[in-house]
Specification:
- With 184 residues, the chain is α+β, with helices and mostly antiparallel strands.
- 58% of the residues lie in helices and 15% in strands.
- The chain has helices at residues 2-25, 74-83, 106-143, 149-182; strands at 40-43, 46-49, 54-60, 63-68, 91-92, 97-100.
- Strands 3-4-6-5 form a 4-stranded antiparallel sheet, with helices on one face.
- The longest helix has 38 residues, at 106-143.
Length: 184
C-alpha cells in the first residue's frame, strides 16, 4: 500500500509542477524570461530552445533583451519569436533583440485570468483522477487479501488528505496568478 501512496504522491506533485510551469509561460503585465521557454530556434537544422542559443535578460519591468551567443542567429531568433503565438514584434539593432511588453488591456487581463482558471481546473481534475486510481489500487489490494480492511480505510484517508493538500496548492497558485494578472 505504501507503494501505491508514494506513486500517487509523485504523480500529484508532477501535476502541480506542470501547472507552475504553465503559469510561468502565461503572460502577465510585466516582462518575464520564462515566457520564451517554448520558443524554438532553427539552429543548424535542429529545433533548439531559445535559452540555449541566447541570453535572455529583463533589465526593466516591461522590457526583455535577447542577446544571441552567435550573431548570425539574430534574424532566426527574431523570426522564431514572430512565428510563436506570443504576439511580440522584437526590435533588432544588429546586436540584440529588444522586446517591449505593452500594458495589458482590461479585456486581455480578464481573458488571461479565465485561462489561468482553466489551467487550474485541469490540474484539479488530474489530481482527482490520480486519487481515483489510487483508491482503486487500494481496493484491489484489500480484495486480494494483501492488506486488511483497516489498512484500506487508513490508506484511503491518507490519499484523501494528500489530494486535499495538492488541491489547496493549486488554489493558492491560481489565486496568486490571478492577482498578478489583474494588478496594473
Amino acid at each position: 500500500m505504501q507503494q501505491v501512496l508514494a506513486n500517487c504522491e509523485d504523480r500529484m506533485k508532477k501535476s502541480v509542477g506542470a501547472l507552475e510551469t504553465d503559469y510561468m509561460a502565461l503572460r502577465t503585465g510585466r516582462a518575464s524570461a520564462a515566457i520564451f521557454d517554448k520558443v524554438r530556434v532553427d539552429y543548424y537544422g535542429q529545433e533548439t530552445p531559445l535559452n540555449q542559443v541566447a541570453s535572455i535578460s529583463v533589465p526593466e519591468a516591461r522590457l526583455v533583451v535577447i542577446q544571441p551567443w552567435d550573431k548570425s542567429l539574430l534574424s532566426l531568433i527574431e523570426k522564431a519569436i514572430q512565428k510563436s503565438d506570443l504576439g511580440f514584434n522584437p526590435s533588432n539593432d544588429g546586436k540584440l533583440l529588444r522586446i517591449n511588453f505593452p500594458p495589458l488591456t482590461q479585456d486581455r487581463r480578464k481573458e488571461l485570468a479565465k485561462q489561468s482558471k482553466t489551467l487550474a481546473e485541469n490540474s484539479r481534475v488530474a489530481i482527482r483522477n490520480i486519487r481515483r486510481d489510487g483508491m482503486e489500487e487500494i481496493k484491489k489490494l484489500q480484495k486480494a487479501g494483501t492488506i486488511s480492511e483497516d489498512e484500506q480505510k487508513e490508506g484511503e484517508t491518507k490519499l484523501q488528505k494528500m489530494t486535499d493538500s495538492n488541491i489547496a496548492k493549486i488554489n493558492d497558485l491560481q489565486a496568486n496568478k490571478e492577482k498578478e494578472i489583474m494588478e496594473i
